[in-house]
Amino acid sequence: MTDPIAADLLPYRSHEIIVSGHRLRFLDEGPTSRGKDDALSSPETILCVHGNPTWSIYWRRVIERFSPRFRVIAVDHVGCGRSDKPPRGQFPYTLAAHRDNLLTLIDRLDLQRINLLAHDWGGAIGLSALLERRDRFARIMLLNTGAFPPPYVPWRIAACRTPLLGTIAVRGLNLFARAAVSMAMSRQSMDKDVARGLLAPYDSWANRVAIDAFVRDIPMSRRHPTYDVLQALDARLVELRELPALLVWGMKDWCFRPDCLRRFQRAWPAAETLEISDAGHYVMEDAADETLQGIATFLGGGQAACERHGAAVANPPRSAAPSGHSETRGESSPGDGKTMACRRGDDG
Predict the structure, then answer these.
(1) 309 is in which domain, residue-wise?
(2) Pairing state of beta strands 245-250 and 137-145?
(3) CB-count burial class (<10 Å; 0-12, 13-18, 19+) for 26
(4) In angstroms, rounded to a whole number, what is the distance separating the alpha carbons of residues 89 and 66?
(5) Any idea what the CATH number is for the domain that residue 324 is in?
(6) Is 308 helix (H, G, I), strand (E, B) or coil?
(7) For residue 315, what pLDDT is reported?
(8) Is residue 137 one of the residues assigned to a domain?
(9) Is cis: bond before 53, omega within 30 of 0?
(10) Contact (Cβ atoms closer than 8 angstroms) between residue 181 and residue 190
(11) Of 65, 224, 272, 278, which one's alpha carbon is 20 to 30 angstroms from that of 298?
(12) Model pLDDT, residue 336
């Protein structure tokens, strides 16, 4: 039976596993097996990992577009979406805890040939899990995220950490999630039904526990326990430089600003980059067509793309010529990888 939360926008049955005594729910659409006689007995998987304050509904277009070919799994972290929302005393709500839950999901489902697709907090959660299960992953796709101690914390987020008043604002008034449906957009206003769907799981003080906890898990100093986790992740990013990677960035994001994109480009000099000049943090909502097409192009290369990436790691390109009227190559990035700059109106 379809889960009632935003079923009109997300008409997919949720599956579940038990982690730390709580139900972690996830969507699982597309082919799951190609038969015992096929050398590729398991199809490639797109593992979608959301951030805060979103949930698996953020990936609905990915499921629609790619589930005919890929197994698409979209997780709801504990405290988010359709998953259980235990009180703070019953679940730690830290980056490390969410990483461990994702590892449990990967192991229980025995996922192989995984293409990580992550946004916001999902980048740090997904990449830290990837580093623990490196042999299971094929590619990386990141949208407006970070995987290092924050180089800055915007005042709009810092204000939500104010003792007592911040929690009242986030959990009592739902200001963080409500503000995101407008402030995380740039090119356009979010569709009202989509906004309703994003907010649907977070309809009470109790159900907003994870939103508040994610905000408070942002390390403001080296004393915060998650600082060391992010610092260790940052130090290991270079280990992933040989994995094919796609970085899709809404360049009007005031939270994960272009500075964050440049840090990934320095770590992964052969990564492909799609910069969308007028899109905000919710790039999948603000610039869905460009984002989905960028992902499709990246995934469409198959083994040939992996081989090209390997050559690029050894000999990163120094310059690039225009590739067509819908996308234009930008100036060389810090990593000298391939950069495509999408501007509104370029495609016709």
Answers:
(1) 14-342
(2) parallel
(3) buried
(4) 38
(5) 3.40.50.1820
(6) helix
(7) 44
(8) yes
(9) yes
(10) yes
(11) 278
(12) 56
Residue 68 makes CB contacts below 8 A (sequence gap 6+) with: 30
User: Coil, strand or helix: which one is 104?
Assistant: helix
Strand, helix or coil for residue 68? coil
Q: How much is the pTM? A: 0.87
Q: How far is the C-alpha of 25 from the C-alpha of 141, rounded, in Å?
A: 22
For residue 145, being part of any structural domain is answered with yes
At 158 the pLDDT is 78
The answer to the question of residue 114 being in a domain is yes
Tokens representing 91? Answer: 């679940």
Residues facing residue 115 across a β-bridge: 46, 139
Q: Which two structure tokens, joined as six digits, stand for 17?
A: 């596993």
- The residues of the chain scoring below 70 in pLDDT are 1-3, 33-41, 301-337, 340-348
When divided into structural domains, the chain yields a total of: 1
> What are the phi and psi torsion angles at 82 (to 5°)?
-95, 0
Residue type at 194? V
The C-alpha atoms of residue 70 and residue 138 are separated, in whole angstroms, by 13
The tokens 């090119």 sit on which residue?
187
Gap between the Cα atoms of 138 and 149, Å rounded: 26
Bridge partners (DSSP) of residue 114 are 45, 137
Provide the token pair at 258.
């272009």
Q: What is the pLDDT of residue 154?
A: 78
Q: Which residue do the tokens 């790619």 mark? A: 66
Backbone phi, psi, residue 299, to 5°: -75, -25
